[in-house]
Amino acid sequence: MDIAEFFETMPFADLLGVDVTEAADGHAEGYLEMREELSWNPDRLMAHGGVTFTLADTVGGAALVSLVDQPVPTIDMRIDYLEAGTGDLYAEAETVRCGDQVGVVDVIVTDDEGTALADARGVYKTG
Questions:
Q1: If you average pLDDT over residues 65-80, what whole number do you get?
Q2: Which of 14, 69, 88, 126 is deepest in the core (most CB within 10 A)?
Q3: Is domain 3-125 annotated with CATH 3.10.129.10?
């Protein structure tokens, strides 16, 4: 499976502008360029929580796809929002466990200065 192509053709991620930039050996990275349409605040650019969640979920899934070479539907994801994203968002994911049926991934979402915006743990179906 061509991981880059798979995530480039995912309609919802494409709509938001999620870009998976790396996915190999259970690790993935990606970013999302923040724009006005993705803000929850009409007066100030601030990422809606759903945007941050989608970036974390997509990059988390990419980390597992790099190991199992097939789509991995999300079973569950828990996210803690730490700061409001006011610019571009970056995500880095590490696989914690990749089993025959279920995989677990930890994801950190940061801004361009490396400030942590959200911590997430995703559970995905691997088989």
A1: 97
A2: 126
A3: yes
